[in-house]
Amino acid sequence: MIDRRFWIWTFAVLAIGLALRAPSLPSGFGMDDFAQLAMLEGVYPAERGIWDLFSFSSGDPQEVHTLMSRGSLAWWSHPQLKLSALRPLSSLLMWLDVQMFGHQALWHHAHTLLWWALMLLSAALLLRRLLPARWAMLALLLYALDECHTYPIGWLANRNAIVSATFAFLALYAHVRHREDGWARGRWLSVLGLMLSLAGGEYGLCILPFFVLYELLAAPGDRKSRARALIPMFVLFGVYVAIHRALGFGSFASNVYVDPLREPLAWLGIAKLRVPILVADMFLAIPTGKLALYPKLMQAQAWLGPAAGILLAFIVPAMWRRLDATGRKRLVWLLAAAVLGIVPVASSFVSARLLLIPAIGGHAVVAALLLDAFDRIRDRAHRFRPWTLVRSTVALALFVAHVGLASYWGFEETRNIHRLNIGTRQASLMMQVDDTKVEQQRLVVLTAADPMTLLYPALVRWVEGHPLPRSWWVLSLAPKPHTLTRITDNAFEMEVVDGAMLTGPVEQLFRRPRFRFRPGQHVYLDGLTVTILKMKEYYPQRVRFTFETSVDDPSLVFLLATKRGMLHYPMGPVGATMAIPPATLPLVLDIQEQDRAAGN
After folding, report:
1. Residue 423 and residue 597: Cα distance in Å, rounded?
2. In whole angstroms, what is the distance from residue 422 CA to residue 155 CA?
3. Banded model confidence at residue 293, pLDDT cuts 50, 70, 90
4. Residue 291 has what DSSP assignment?
């Protein structure tokens, strides 16, 4: 009867989760989705196999030069920039989408929601195996409502996290059942599940601390049997690392994706900030996705990580005596594994999406705290004790954060993804270019406002059936006013007013501040030479752009990112200085407005 209630609850939670995430269906393609479509159809500047759609830059200098010249990388990219992830299963699933659905993004998103449903069911299976029904039910609800699901669902390129998590949960379920029930098939099914999880993406590494700490803290048997149980996992991990290194995957020179094996000191520098931020997100439901673009807010959130640890240190021991021996082991194991499970993904841009696997343990801990507080309130002998009141207040705050605020953050983030994708599509389609000439033209955006505008508008138009330009160049991503001074027939200089370039996280995706430019340094692209003239502290402030032809030549089209789209920007005469306003994100227009703006 308990299991029947549990599975009824599970499908109810699944229905709620799908309803909250349904707005992702019409979101269309976004960001890296366009690059991956280009890879699959042979128009990406570097050739990629159907199993290798997450290798945006291999680190080869000649390839990096080609990608920069075409606009698939920013001009300020490090000449050996590597952004390459080993995700063969997720790549093949994207290839399958294109084979079945073409460019109909709605069906790609429906496929993602199907995977999410499978992931939630695998999480329910795992939680019920580990925890009593009531505990597992609340943990599943908290997990399903968490903001960490938003980007893996709403962004097709991030579906790999869901694929990895699905098989990771099944692998851990099989391992625990094998160790505790003697289920023979569980031994090899856990290895198979872990293999598929890692084939989905490096997110699968987050489940390894759960395996290791289970054997250290909660598994049956003596030390030798526990050590033997981990041998297949360590062998598989070693093989994965060897393949990863041998095939040249990883990252280099980026300040967003940092390879711990190739750049250990740089990784430690960012991990000491990112891990506490993600700990705070997991236990306190802080909206990391919204705060990660603001360095000062990130620094503040990092202090909330230790605060969450102190909170747990006070509350967890108080409920210790209410749990049986198995419950205590489970609690300590899941708490430790949830925190250590963050470490493997600290290499990536800090965002709640990184918590998709660790959060299964984190929410089990939060659920235990909430249930303990509820039980104390029900107990008349303890109801009005000061410590009970304190715990009840904390529990209420956690409940509101994890059920109310987390759902709200996730829903708002889903809407933001939708608006950004649709707005960028509209702005790109209304771009003031001539399709009969664009294949021979270089499109030059003076300033951009976001990652989508930086790299993808040309590909957005291509997906809609328009020809690709010869090049797509964005000159600055600094969110400040600029001045533009035309100094010769084929060159002009741009200066950031009261600011500098390359200070933001999106800009530093392509070049870590450590690899800073110097005055007089040149960057050579096919058809464009960039010269650094003036620095502000460690960042370029004034830059010269010299083209292979006159800036008045029709082969160059200069654009400005505005709320009404990518508008043509006429160049003034030699000697003229013009004010360039900060780039703005496009407005989302309804169909009638879009048609009017496009002149239809």
Report:
1. 13
2. 13
3. low
4. H
- One DSSP character per residue, 228-259 reads HHHHHHHHHHHHHHHHHHHTT-EEES-SSS--
Location of structure tokens 């003031």: 432
Helix (H) or strand (E) holding 471: strand 471-474
Output b/e per residue, 133-143; b: 16+ Cβ within 10 A.
eebbbbbbbbb
d(CA 359, CA 286): 13
| 336-366 residues labelled b (16+ CB within 10 A) or e (exposed) | bbbbbbbbbbbbbbbbbbbbbbbbbbbbbbb
Q: What is the dihedral of CA 288, 289, 291, 295, to 10 degrees?
A: 100
Residues 448-484 have pLDDT tens digits of 887 778 899 999 999 999 999 999 999 999 989 999 9
Q: Are 519 and 532 a contacting pair, CB within 8 Å?
A: yes
Count other C-beta atoms under 10 Å from residue 522's C-beta. Answer: 11
Angstrom CA distances, 495 to 95, 358, 376, 486, stand at: 43, 44, 63, 12
Least confident of 302-316, 418-432, 519-533, 563-577: 302-316
Instruction: Give the helix, strand, coil percentages of the chain, each rounded to 5.
Output: 60, 10, 30
pLDDT at 589 over 70: no
Any idea what DSSP says for residue 402?
I
Distance CA 6, CA 12 (A): 10
Angle between helical axes of 325-340 and 264-284 (0-180°, round to 10)? 130
Could you tell me the two tokens for 108?
A: 């790609």
Backbone angles phi, psi at 135, to 5 degrees: -65, -45
pTM: 0.92
Helices (H), 71-104: 88-101
For residue 406, give Cα distances in angstroms to 23, 141, 149, 192, 193.
16, 12, 10, 33, 29
Beta-ladder partners of 55: 84
Other beta carbons less than 10 A from residue 449's beta carbon:
19
